């Protein structure tokens, strides 16, 4: 075991050294090549300025001999007028050459590429002249040779450094492998269930710290085993909750599905031609289909929140504006039962930090319940007010108050549970899914708030929840997103 660890550590260090030395050699070569090229380009710029200032550009061969460079004269159409190294008539039109195109636009430009005429890499520099463009070119083969020489010397130096560093690394790798083996032996004891095993003292350093942490882990594992036994009971309770949820979902789905299936079969057996009942049967089928769609939508919403995939977009909003829009959208529904829907606004310019779509869903769910359980001619009030809390925490409390039938005291603690209904028969008759208040609870918690209910049997109900006024610190926003959204 020690030998394998030693070889792996040594191989890893050797690879790191090789990569580091190669990167150093490559960067030095690139810097040297860049420096040579830059000096050559400046030299060509100086020569070009001298030739342009001289004015006479007709004898390019003589100018090339003076400048020690290949010289090409191009007119404004890209045609080569003269070239010191080739016959102009045999050369291509140079309008597509980037340095020529730039010079014809009045700018100096340089580029390094392979010459199509001479089949050798050249550094080209073109400058604007009255007749078109003047281009100077010099081969870069000597730069390549200089860079190759530098690279060879670097390789020799790095080779020596690599050998020395590898010897030093081997010494440290051997020491590390022995300590690794000790740690692995202790870990193996823990894996076999021997929580009484302890690492011997390994002096100072990271391995000594790791050994101490493993010793702490041994003691914590003993406590953890005991804790897991006590948590097993809790897990069984959660399993019962899961099973209850599956049973509830199955029951909620089975009722409308059975109704749809029964009435569909009735229609197929001949009732489709019964003009007195066929439309009524179809209406019942549509009602149950809508109930299934609502149940599915609520289940998906609740699932997204609990599985941390619900996206929230928090921002500051005027609470009165939010409430006004929601109340206006619900007035037609309340008007069908001649229910008065009133708004009690918060003080002007009261803002809350929230997700507007989530708040719309919260209040819509609460208003939907209030309309269902408030008799005709009743009153529903939606409002907001400042809410005093702990030191430095500014909040707004939003409430929905109705004059409905009220809720029995024994039902209040379970009101926000999934599928819990106070009056199951009436709730299904009114189209409720039993998930609306559970969604409200989760969305309010996503804003760092709390939801509660005040009710008296026969005296109406008031649902209240809080929202923050100020933008929370960045750390708190991240906690909200980490708890209720997918990152």
Describe it.
- Strands 2-1-5-4-3 form a 5-stranded antiparallel beta sheet. The chain has a 5-stranded mixed beta sheet with strand order 7-9-10-12-11. Strands 6-8 form a two-stranded antiparallel sheet.
- It is built from 11 helices and 12 strands.
- A hairpin with a 4-residue loop joins strand 1 (70-75) and strand 2 (80-83).
- By secondary structure, it is α+β, with helices and mostly antiparallel strands.
- Helix 4 (141-191) packs across helix 5 (206-268), helix 5 (206-268) runs antiparallel to helix 6 (278-306) and helix 8 (356-373) packs antiparallel against helix 10.
- Helix content is 56%, strand content 16%.
- Major sheet characteristics: 5 strands, antiparallel
Distance from N terminus to C terminus (CA atoms, Å) equals 41 Å
The residue ranges in which pLDDT falls below 50 over 5 or more consecutive positions are 481-487
SSE string, helices as H and strands as E: HHEEHEEEHHHEHEEHEEHHEEH
| Radius of gyration based on Cα positions | 41 Å
Mean pLDDT across every amino acid position: 79
Q: Tell me what portion of residues adopts beta-strand conformation.
A: 15-25%
Tell me the number of helical segments per DSSP (H or I, 4 or more residues long): 11
Could you give the count of β-strands? 12
User: Order of strands in the sheet with the most strands?
Assistant: 2-1-5-4-3
Secondary-structure-based class equals alpha+beta
Helix content: 55-70%
Name the overall outline: extended
């Amino acid at each position: 075991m020690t030998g394998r660890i030693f070889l792996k550590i040594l191989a890893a260090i050797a690879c790191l050294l090789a990569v580091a030395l190669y990167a150093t050699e490559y960067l030095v070569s690139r810097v040297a090549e860049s420096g040579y090229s830059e000096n050559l380009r400046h030299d060509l710029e100086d020569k070009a300025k001298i030739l342009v200032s001289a004015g006479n550009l007709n004898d390019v061969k003589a100018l090339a001999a003076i400048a020690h460079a290949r010289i090409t004269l191009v007119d404004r159409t890209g045609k080569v007028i003269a070239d010191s190294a080739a016959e102009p008539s045999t050369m291509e039109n140079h309008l597509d050459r980037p340095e020529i195109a730039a010079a014809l636009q009045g700018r100096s430009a340089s580029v390094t590429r392979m010459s199509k005429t001479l089949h050798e890499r050249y550094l080209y520099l073109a400058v604007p002249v009255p007749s078109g463009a003047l281009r100077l070119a010099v081969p870069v083969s000597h730069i390549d040779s200089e860079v190759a020489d530098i690279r060879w010397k670097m390789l020799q130096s790095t080779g020596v450094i690599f050998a020395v560093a590898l010897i030093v690394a081997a010494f440290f790798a051997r020491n590390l492998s022995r300590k690794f083996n000790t740690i692995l032996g202790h870990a193996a004891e823990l894996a076999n269930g021997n929580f009484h095993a302890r690492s011997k003292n390994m002096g100072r350093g990271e391995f000594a710290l790791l050994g101490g942490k493993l010793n702490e882990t041994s003691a914590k594992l003993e406590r953890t085993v005991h804790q897991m036994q006590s948590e097993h009971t809790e897990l069984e309770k959660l399993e019962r909750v899961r099973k209850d949820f599956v049973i509830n979902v199955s029951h909620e789905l089975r009722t409308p599905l059975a109704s749809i299936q029964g009435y569909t079969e009735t229609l197929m057996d001949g009732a489709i031609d019964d003009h007195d009942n066929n439309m009524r049967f179809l209406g019942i089928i549509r009602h149950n289909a809508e109930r299934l769609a609502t149940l599915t939508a609520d289940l998906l919403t609740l699932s997204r929140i609990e599985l941390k995939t619900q996206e929230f977009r928090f921002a500051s909003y005027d609470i009165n504006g939010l409430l006004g829009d929601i109340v206006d959208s619900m007035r037609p529904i309340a008007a069908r039962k001649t229910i008065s829907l009133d708004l009690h606004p918060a003080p002007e310019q009261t803002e809350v930090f929230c997700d507007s779509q989530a708040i719309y869903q919260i209040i819509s769910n609460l208003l939907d319940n209030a309309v269902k359980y408030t008799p005709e001619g009743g009153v529903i009030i939606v409002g907001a007010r400042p809410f005093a809390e702990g030191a430095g925490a500014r909040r707004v409390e939003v409430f929905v108050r109705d004059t409905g039938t009220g809720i029995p005291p024994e039902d209040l603690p379970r009101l926000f549970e999934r599928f819990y209904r106070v009056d199951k028969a009436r709730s299904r008759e009114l189209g409720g899914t039993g998930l609306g208040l559970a969604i409200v609870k989760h969305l309010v918690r996503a804003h760092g708030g709390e939801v509660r209910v005040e009710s008296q049997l026969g005296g109406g109900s008031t649902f209240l929840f809080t929202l923050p006024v100020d933008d929370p610190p960045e750390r708190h926003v991240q906690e909200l997103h980490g708890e209720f959204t997918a990152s």
